[in-house]
Amino acid sequence: MTMRLLPATPLLLVLLALGGCNRPSYETPVKTYQTFHRAVQYGELKTAYASLSQPTQEALQARAKTVADASGGTVKADPVAFFFANVPLPADVTEVSLLSEEGDVARVVVVSSAGKSEVRMVRELSGWKLDLTQSLQQP
Known about the structure:
Low-confidence stretches: 1-20
Strand order of the largest sheet: 1-2-3-4
């Protein structure tokens, strides 16, 4: 008995193409921010955390450890849970655009119902990442 492959229908092709739209992408600063935003919206916190720069992750690990140590062990030193427990769900983002890119540092402008903001991005070996180290240093 021989199996015949049926020709792909246009609907199947569209569904396959759309399936790739939600994959994390760190190719450009804009795609990285969109990956981060979408992951936070859908509660995919590990993917969102992976969108953060290495220095940002290290700062969050240090803060989570400090909180865990101060709690006497009642709080787990989990930087993912620590960060996202203190971050509100993102506002509806209507636009993400590249403001500047020089070498391994870029800035994107994020327009949402809450207004405009700039986000610093850095290029690492694994691609572009959000760099929040300066904002984490603020009291």
